[in-house]
Amino acid sequence: MKRLFTLLLLGSSLAGWAQQVNGSFDETWEDCIPYNADEKTQGTEPVGWQCSNTRGVKGTGAATFTQSVTGRNGQGYAVQLKNGETGISFFKSNVPAYICLGTPWATSVGISKSDGGAFGGLDFTYRPDAIEFYYQRTATASSTQPGTVVAYLWSGTYTQASVPQSIVITGTPTTSDMTDRDRNILEKSLDGCQGGAVTQEGTLVASLEHSITANTADGKWDYACIPFTYKSTTTKPEKINIIFAANDYFGARTAIVKDDQLVVDDVRLIYYNTLKSLSYEGANLNFNENTLSYDLSQFKYEAAKLSFEKKAVGGTAQATYNETSGIVTIKVTGEDNASTTYSLQFKKVTGEISSISYNGTPIEGFAQETKHYYTVTGEYTEGCLTATPQDEGANVQYDYNAATRIATISIPESGKDICYYVKFAEEVNAYSSKLVIGMAGGFLSAPVQEVGITDEKEGTVNLQLRNFLLEGLGLIGDIFVYDVAITADGNISKTDNITIFGEMGAQLGVLPLELTGKISQGNLAAQLSIIWAEMPITVDVYPLSTTSVDLTDMNCEAAQIEQARQGLINPNCIIYTDEGTTVSEGSENVVVGTSCTKLNLNKSYEISIPYAFTATEASLARSFATGWHSICLPFATTPETLGAEQAQAFTAFDGNTLTFEKVTAMEANVPYLIYFAKETENISLQNIDAAVTVPQSVTHGNVTFTGNYEAGRNMEGLYGVAEKDGAQYIMRGGAGSTLGSTGAYFTVSGSEVNSLHLRLDGIETNISGVQTGQNGQAFDIYTLSGIKVRSQAATTDGLPKGIYLINGKKHIVK
C-alpha cells in the first residue's frame, strides 16, 4: 500500500506537517501557470510543487513536460518528468523537465543566450538528514545524461541583479533582481549564465546533489535515500528547495536529450532518531545503532563514564538514570518527533524497602520497585509501621504529616531519593456507586465502585474515592477531599486544589477540583470536576438505583452505553445520549437526542424522567385486576389506549363528597381513578411523548389526590384504592402497606375523617372501609347508645346528622 504520511498527535500542534513535504503527489493536481506566462495555464502540477512547463513566446511553442501517472503499487499518482522540445520553425531546442519547491524560470533570445533553473523555495526551519524517494528512469538509447535530484537548505536571502526572466524571439528579455537563485545558494559558477552580480548572500546550511544514471526495469521501481551534507550544523535553516530533473540539472543545456524520462513518487524527508556512537568506559558494548538493549549489570553507574553521539544533525539525545531499576535510558528524538530509546542495565543500588507492615500485618500489594504509594484504613500511632530495608542493617526513617495523614518511609543514609508513602484513610460510610468518567468531552469508563463519606462533624464530611482509574492512563490513585460542606438536607459542596494520592497522581501534580452532590435516603449522587493540563475530567457518581444517567456531550459508542448501564439495579433507568449516537439493536430506555426507540417502565421501581423525549414504542409492566385502580403516568394517553373501560378525574369536594368525572383523555403526571373491565397486564403503547416526571397534586377542600413515581411508597396514614374480601375500597393504609410507581394516593388535612362520600358515575360511597362500585360490602349501623338503625346497609345516605358506629368505629354523618 502506498504510504500516507500522517502525524497522529495528542496534545501537540498539527504544525508537525511542516517537517515534511507533500511527496505523495496524491492530491488532485492544480493548474500550472508558468512563470511570466501572463497568468495563462499550461498543464497541471502536484500540490506544493512547480514544474517547468512553458508557454513559450506568448503561447507560441507552449509545451508540457510534467504529467501525473499511476503511482507506485498502482496507488494514487506519481510525477512523470519527460524532456521535450519547444520553439517554432528552426528556433527549436530541447527543454529540461523538472519540478521543484521553488519557482522554475527560463530565458532565451531565439535559441541563444538561454538560461534557467529555479529560485526561491518553501519556508522551512527543520534539519532533515536525508531524502528518500522511489523512481523509474528511462533514457533514450543514445543518451548519456543522468536524471538529477538536488536539495538544499539555507538561511537569509541571496540576490542577483538584472537576471533576464522572459523568452523572446528577438530583442532583449525583461530583467529584474532575482532572490534565492539555485546557483547562487549552491555556490555554482555563473560562467555562461545570465544576470549581473550577486549583491546579497545568505548562508547555505545543507545540500545534496545526486545523479540517477541506470535505467530501471520495465514496471519496476528503484529506491534511493540520499543524505544531506551539512555545511553548518549550528545555523538554523529558514528555507528549503528540492528539485527533481530528467536531465543533468546543472549540466550544459545543449546536452539535454529529448524524451529522457524520470518518474518520481513517495518523496519523504528523513530524520534520523538513532545513535551514531555509544560507549561506557571499561565496557565492551559492541555498539550497533539497531541494538537497543545493553547489559552492564557488572558496573555501578557513573555518569561521567557514559558517552554517546546522535546520528542526526538535529533532534535530541537525552540520558535518564533510574536509580530504582539501575537502568539508563537514552531517548533519541528526530526533528519529526519520532524517537528510539536505548536501555543500559547497570548494577542496582540500595535505598529500597522490601516490605511494609501496618500493626504487624503486611500491606497488601506491596511492590518495592514499581509501587511507592499505599493506603490503609485506620489511625497512625507511633510504631504502627514496620518497614524492612532491602539492605541489611540500613536505618529506616519514618515521618508523619498529621495534616495530610501521610507517613513517609525512607533510608536517608543511602543517598538515594527513594520514598514510600502510606496514607491513613478514615472509616467511612460506603456508597455503592456507578461512576461515569469523561475526559475532554469524551467517554472513558463507567466502573462500579464504592465512594466513602465520613460521618458529619461540625457541618462537614470527608470524601474518599479509592483506586481511581483513567482509561489509557491506568491507576491514578486515591482521591481524598476534606472538609466538604454538608447542609441539613444533605447537599455537599467543595472547591479545592487536590493531589491524587498515587504514583500517577504525584506526576499530575496539584489539580483544581469542584465537588457538588447530595446524600439522600441512603444514596449518594455527586459530580467531581477536575482540570488537568487544561483538560476537564468529570466523574459523575450515581447510586446503583439511579433513575437516569446523562451521557450527553460524551460522544459515546454503543458498547460504552451498555458499559454505563452495567451494574445498575433500576430497570427504569433512562440513558440520555447525543443526537446521532448509534445504539445497540434492541436497546431499551436509551434516548438519542430527544428520541427513544423502546421505553420500558416497571411499576416495582422508581421512575424519574429529567428531560422530555418521544418514544416509538413504550410498555408498562403493571398488572391491573378487574375493577378500579389509581394511576398516574409520565405521558399523555387515553383510557381506550390503555385498554380501560373508563378513567375519572378528581373534580370537587364539598366537605362530604369526593366527586370524580369521566375523562376521555389523560394528561401526563396527573392522577386518575381508572376502571378495567377485565384483567390487564403489561400495557403496550406506540409513539408517546414522555414528560418530565413532576407528579401533580389535585386538591379540593382538604383532600388532595397525588400521583406517585416512587417504588414501594409507604402508605401508612394515606388513602388509596384497595381490595378487601373481594370488594374494592378507598382505604387508609396501615403499617407495611405500600404503593408502586404509576399509582396515586389521597391525603386528608386537618382532623381525622371517619366518613366521606365518593361519587363515581352517580354511585355514592364512603372513602374509608366502604365500597367504590357495584359490589360493595354490607354493614350494620348503630347509634352511640348501641341501637341498630340499619342492617346490611350499603350507604349512610338518608340518615339524620349525627355520630354512628360502623364496624366498631365512629362515623360522622353531616
In short:
The chain is mainly β and 814 residues long. The model is unreliable at 1-16 and 766-777 (pLDDT under 50).
Structural write-up:
There is one protein chain. The termini are far apart. Helices cover 3% and strands 49% of the residues. The chain is built from four helices and 67 strands. The chain is mostly beta strands and 814 residues long. The protein is elongated. An eight-stranded antiparallel β-barrel has the order 36-38-39-40-41-42-43-44. Strands 3, 8, 11, 13, 18, 20 and 21 form a seven-stranded antiparallel β-sheet that branches. It folds into five domains: 14-270, Jelly Rolls (Sandwich); 275-346, no CATH class; 353-425, no CATH class; 429-593, Lipocalin, CATH 2.40.128.350; 613-777, no CATH class.
Helix content: under 10%
- Main sheet: strands, sense, barrel: 8 strands, antiparallel, barrel
Oligomeric description of these chains:
single chain
| Total number of distinct structural domains | 5
Write the CATH architecture name of the largest domain. Answer: Sandwich
Q: Beta-strand level of the residues, as a percent range?
A: over 45%
- The total of helices stands at 4
Q: Supply Rg.
A: 43 Å
Mean pLDDT equals 89
Can you tag this structure with a few keywords?
single chain, 814 residues, mainly beta, Jelly Rolls, 5 domains, 8-stranded antiparallel β-barrel, 7-stranded antiparallel beta sheet, 67 strands, 3% helix, disordered N terminus
